[in-house]
């Protein structure tokens, strides 16, 4: 059926024979000159061609690899990003927890020294509708025993007082608010006065200003001020550190002596605070104050 | 003219197979076989003896190019026989006509598919005879199956252009007037 010319068959037979000879030659163990020379020739052609293709095809190979790895790489990137975010938030949480723990420790220390019974709370927000008043919102309320006119402290000293208490939140007027006036007493000399938020007329620009009623009272920068305490401990319990006298203004003819007070509390970074729900049995006097710094001439903000 | 063009095209196919296709990291194993596709195109338009020579040369080139993972002559033997058989069948059945008449595209692709299958099986058979330890049933089945499918996929890009070149050049040489038994030429 399949006809072919004898010559054609001869050609085929020759080629097949050549192939078989090559097969047998190359399949035998050990090298032989025919196939090794032939392979060397093939390599001679192949090597530059392959190098050229490799050079020309490098971008295509990169693209191909990128495409092939693309979905996997995207998945990997997403996975790593997720892990990274989880680790980051964990780290942040650890840092915040450490910070809170430190502040709670300080608060406990202060309340233990003064014999105050405190409810810990967290300052949630400092924003007010217009930004005039210095108030913060804390996350405890009447359900935790917080009432109006309770003293709010943190580990460093006086924060302010509760002016409004809801079931779960309370509003605290900071001591730096201009409406705030805290009865104060100088450490050691026991001279009394009032610490007002902001500046008083005729006084220096300040966060807190101390007005001493006794014109002759000796007061110097570096003297520390604690709360005097109110009747029945409301709104202020006695003995809470308020701040340090920074600068005394000598105004001839003034009715009172005015001093600028550096607050003991860093009002810019309020976090953990405590509401004093029960005051001490007796006035703790100066026992809540931290040990006097070595150089009272250069008073630093405590803590 | 025709033979030179064919020589260049087949050489390009061989080089492309050795340097490009064999370089691509296919996860499933074998890639398309451009050499088979090119040799089929030549065999469909020439005499059996010339087809056998073409197949032998292309196969021998593939044998000699790195990687030298199989013995020299194995691919040459298989391709030589395959090209001869394709040309012989083409000449004797002569479905749409004698040598030189334009083969239809579908027929060429079909011939490529059958040839790729046969070449794959023949290559495996030679391996069995000379004791290649790679020749297991599953390896051969997947290799031949996937390889044939990929070769069929690329054959429109290789077989049909070569067929077109050869037919176009043949027309100007009046090759179509040759008889069915003529030895023909490249």
Automatic annotation (TrEMBL), chain A:
Coiled-coil intervals: none
Q: Which gene encodes it?
A: mreC
- Which InterPro entries does the protein's record reference? Cell/Rod_1, Cell/Rod_MreC_2, MreC, MreC_beta-barrel_core
Note whether Zinc occurs among the keywords: no
| Free-text function comment from the UniProt entry | Involved in formation and maintenance of cell shape.
Stretches of Basic and acidic residues bias are at 282-303
What are the boundaries of the region Disordered?
Answer: 279-303
Q: Which lineage is the organism of this entry classified under, starting from the top rank?
A: Bacteria, Bacillati, Actinomycetota, Actinomycetes, Streptosporangiales
Record organism:
Nocardiopsis codii
Keywords of this entry: Cell shape
Rod shape-determining protein MreC beta-barrel core domain sequence ranges: 126-276
Indicate whether ATP-binding appears among the record's keywords.
Answer: no
Q: What is this protein called?
A: Cell shape-determining protein MreC
Q: What family is reported?
A: Belongs to the MreC family.
The record's annotation in Pfam families points to: MreC (PF04085)
């Amino acid at each position: 059926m399949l006809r072919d010319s004898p010559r054609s068959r001869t050609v085929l037979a020759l080629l097949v024979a050549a192939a078989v000879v090559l097969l047998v030659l190359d399949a035998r163990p050990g090298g032989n000159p025919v196939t090794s020379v032939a392979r060397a020739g093939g390599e001679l052609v192949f090597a530059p061609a392959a190098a050229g293709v490799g050079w020309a095809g490098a971008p295509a190979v990169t693209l191909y690899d990128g495409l092939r790895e693309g979905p996997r790489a995207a998945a990997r990137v997403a996975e790593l990003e997720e892990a990274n975010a989880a680790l980051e938030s964990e780290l942040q949480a650890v840092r915040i927890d450490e910070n809170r723990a430190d502040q709670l420790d300080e608060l406990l220390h202060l309340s233990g020294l003064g014999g105050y019974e405190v409810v810990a709370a967290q300052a949630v927000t400092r924003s007010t509708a217009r930004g005039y008043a210095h108030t913060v919102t804390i996350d405890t309320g009447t359900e935790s025993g917080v009432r109006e006119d309770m003293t709010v402290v943190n580990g460093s000293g006086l924060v302010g007082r509760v002016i409004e208490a809801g079931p779960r939140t309370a509003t605290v007027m900071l001591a730096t608010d201009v409406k705030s006036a805290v009865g104060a007493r100088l450490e050691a000399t026991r001279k009394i006065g009032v610490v007002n938020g902001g500046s008083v007329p005729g006084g220096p620009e300040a966060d807190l200003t101390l007005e001493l009623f006794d014109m002759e009272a000796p007061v110097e920068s570096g003297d520390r001020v604690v709360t005097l305490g109110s009747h029945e401990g409301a709104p202020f319990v006695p003995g809470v550190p308020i701040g340090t006298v920074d600068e005394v203004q000598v105004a001839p003819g003034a009715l009172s002596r005015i001093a600028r007070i550096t607050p003991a509390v860093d009002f810019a970074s309020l976090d953990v605070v405590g509401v004093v729900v029960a005051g001490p049995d007796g006035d703790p006097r100066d026992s809540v104050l931290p040990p006097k710094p070595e150089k009272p001439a250069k008073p630093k903000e405590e803590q | 003219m025709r033979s030179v063009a064919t020589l260049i095209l087949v050489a390009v196919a061989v080089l492309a197979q050795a340097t490009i296709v064999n370089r691509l990291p296919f996860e499933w194993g074998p890639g398309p076989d451009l050499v088979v596709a090119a040799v089929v195109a030549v065999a469909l338009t020439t005499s059996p003896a010339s087809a056998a020579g073409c197949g032998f040369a292309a196969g021998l080139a593939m044998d000699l190019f790195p990687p030298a993972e199989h013995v020299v002559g194995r691919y040459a033997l298989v391709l030589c026989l395959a090209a001869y058989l394709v040309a012989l069948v083409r000449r004797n059945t002569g479905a749409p006509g004698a040598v030189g008449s334009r083969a239809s595209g579908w027929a060429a692709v079909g011939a490529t598919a059958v040839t790729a299958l046969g070449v794959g099986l023949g290559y495996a058979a030679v391996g069995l005879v000379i004791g290649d330890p790679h020749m297991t049933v599953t390896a051969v089945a997947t290799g031949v199956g996937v390889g044939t499918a990929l070769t069929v996929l690329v054959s429109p890009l290789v077989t049909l252009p070569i067929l077109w070149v050869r037919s176009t050049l043949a027309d100007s040489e009046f090759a179509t007037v040759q008889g069915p038994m003529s030895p023909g030429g490249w």
